[in-house]
Amino acid sequence: MNTIQYNYSILFFSKITTLLFILLACFATPISAQDLGLSMMTNLHQTNTLNPATMTDRKFIFSFPGVTGSVGSSDLTYNKLTTTNEAGETIIKANDLVASLRPQNTIWSNTSLEIFHLSFGSNRWQISMGHAIKMNNNVTIPKTLAQLVLQGNEQFLGETVNIAPQFNMTSYSEWSIATAINYGRLTLGLRAKLLGGLSNFSSGNAVANIHTNDQSIYELTLASDYTIRSAGLIEITGLEDENEEIELTTGEIDLFNALFGENKGFAFDLGATFKVSDKLTVTGSIIDLGKITWSKNANTYTSKGDYEYKGLDVLDLLKDEDTNLSQIADTLTDIFKFNKKQDNYSTGLTVRSYWTANYQLSEKFTVGGLIHTRHHQGTFDPTFAVNGAINMGRWWTLGAIVSQGKSTGFSVGVNTALRLGPVQLFFATDNLPGLIKPLDHGYAHGRVGMNLAFGKREA
Could you give phi then psi for residue 16, rounded to 5 degrees? Predict the structure, then answer.
């Protein structure tokens, strides 16, 4: 088998990372934040963004700009996959990296900037409205792609493997209006959302098969049915022209575009809460049922067909420190030829659901359980959690949550809300260790914000 020394320098690791991106772009030629702790903070107005049927104990609430951010990967952490050599250089442990991979490996990041949120109502009804700018990124890389890049293709002699990554990188503006109506023990909620797409870079069909001749690693048969799409502020050049270098550029955003976007979409949320008894409350919600249609600067690049190629050995290219990555990209685009078409297309949002049960043990202590799911591009990602909270009167709440998720693993989070007169400050994280030491953990999450709340709602 072809081998390669695993004492990569930072520069060389950067080269591999860049090559992976080029492979992703050529062959193609994001999970939103879970907010588990927030969903259990029943005294916080932001819970309504996860379940439109949630009604707080105040008649009027105005939320100042707040931010939520999360980043995660499938069991991959920086410190587990890198080390320091005798020269003091940070190096990647390639064998450990390949061994730690799943058949499909997702890297994701999500950010939500909530510009404002307004809510008002009585003890029987509530109206909410707000605006936010959201960025959701997901990249799923098959293990076979990493094996090919880091270990060569001799291990695949006589085999056919699919090395096609899948990805969806989307940013959009969201205007929303919601209503909740109480019927005694039951409360129903509905939220409508007008979406304005800012940018999209995503894959469609995801087939890029490579068959290595059982006699020679240099003789490859390739079959592709792969689609990459770009729209809005993102534009790709050179993908369909073998005489040009591949470039990914982003345009400038103005205030009007940031507020409303130029690519229209629509989504809605459904929610319900039911008070089983004075102590037990159960809730359920499904959010982000919708899509965005991309029409501004929308292009689709398609590679479909069978090819035969002789003379390409990825390892030989990588071992040459003088290798020009644009030359590698040109070689790959020669193999996977792409056709460009200007055409509108649509992408769906990541659909999430929250199912909770809260039980009030006493006036100060509450416990609960949660099932959270995410659905996107045919994937199903469940998370299970339990939580506990202490209510220090009406002015301070402190909670903790323990969860186990398919993509996030085992996590321990904390959350707190402090009320000083009409001012309410809050902080929540679903994985406190990941927030403190992100290089040691594959998942980090945090949310912070402030509300102004007036008028006590009748019980």
Answer: -65, -45
